[in-house]
C-alpha cells in the first residue's frame, strides 16, 4: 500500500502535465506555472504521506509526549523542503521537474527515516 501511494505521488504530476521537453533552450521559462503549482500540491500530499508513514513506527507506550515527534517532525521538515523548493524554483525555473521530484522523494524518505528510527 505504501509503495502504491509513493508511486502515485511521484508519477501523478508527470502524467497530468504530459511533460514536453523543450528543445529551445533560449526561451526564458517562468518560475510559477501550472507545472510548479501541481508540484507544490504534490509536495503537500507527500508531507501528509510522510506523516502517515512516520506514524506506522512502533512507538512504545512509555514514550508519553515524545510520541508527538512522529507527527510534528515530518510536517516541520516537509515545510522546510517546500520552502527550499520555492527558493530553488525561483532560482532555477528550467529545472522545476527535477527539483519537484527531488522534493517529493526527500519528504517520503523523511517519513521512512522517522518510521525506522
Entry summary:
This protein has helices at residues 2-17, 34-54, 69-91, 96-116. The chain is mainly α.
What's the topology here?
Blueprint: H1 2-17, H2 34-54, H3 69-91, H4 96-116
Helix pairs in contact: 1-2, 1-4, 2-3, 2-4, 3-4
Report what the structure shows.
The chain is mainly α. It has one domain. Helix content is 69%, strand content 0%. The protein is built from 4 helices and no strands. Helix 1 packs antiparallel against helix 2 and helix 2 packs antiparallel against helix 3. Keywords: Membrane, Transmembrane, Transmembrane helix.
Strand percent estimate = under 5%
* Tally of individual helices: 4
- What is the residue-mean pLDDT, rounded to a whole number? 78
Radius of gyration: 16 Å
Span between N and C termini? 21 Å
Instruction: Decide which structural class fits the backbone.
Output: mainly alpha
Please trace the helix and strand order, writing H or E for each element. HHHH
* Biggest sheet character: none
Helix content: 55-70%
Shape label: elongated
Residue windows where pLDDT falls under 50 for at least 5 positions: 19-27
Which key terms come to mind for this protein?
transmembrane helix; 4 helices; transmembrane; 117 residues
Amino acid at each position: 500500500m505504501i509503495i502504491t501511494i509513493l508511486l502515485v505521488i511521484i508519477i501523478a504530476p508527470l502524467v497530468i502535465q504530459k511533460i514536453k521537453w523543450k528543445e529551445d533552450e533560449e526561451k526564458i521559462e517562468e518560475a510559477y506555472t501550472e507545472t510548479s503549482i501541481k508540484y507544490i500540491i504534490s509536495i503537500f500530499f507527500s508531507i501528509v504521506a510522510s506523516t502517515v508513514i512516520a506514524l506506522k513506527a512502533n512507538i512504545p507506550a512509555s514514550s508519553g509526549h515524545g510520541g508527538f515527534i512522529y507527527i510534528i517532525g515530518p510536517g516541520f521538515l516537509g515545510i522546510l523542503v517546500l520552502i527550499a523548493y520555492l527558493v530553488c524554483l525561483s532560482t532555477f525555473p528550467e529545472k522545476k521537474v527535477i527539483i519537484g521530484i527531488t522534493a517529493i522523494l526527500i519528504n517520503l524518505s523523511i517519513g521512512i527515516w522517522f518510521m525506522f528510527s
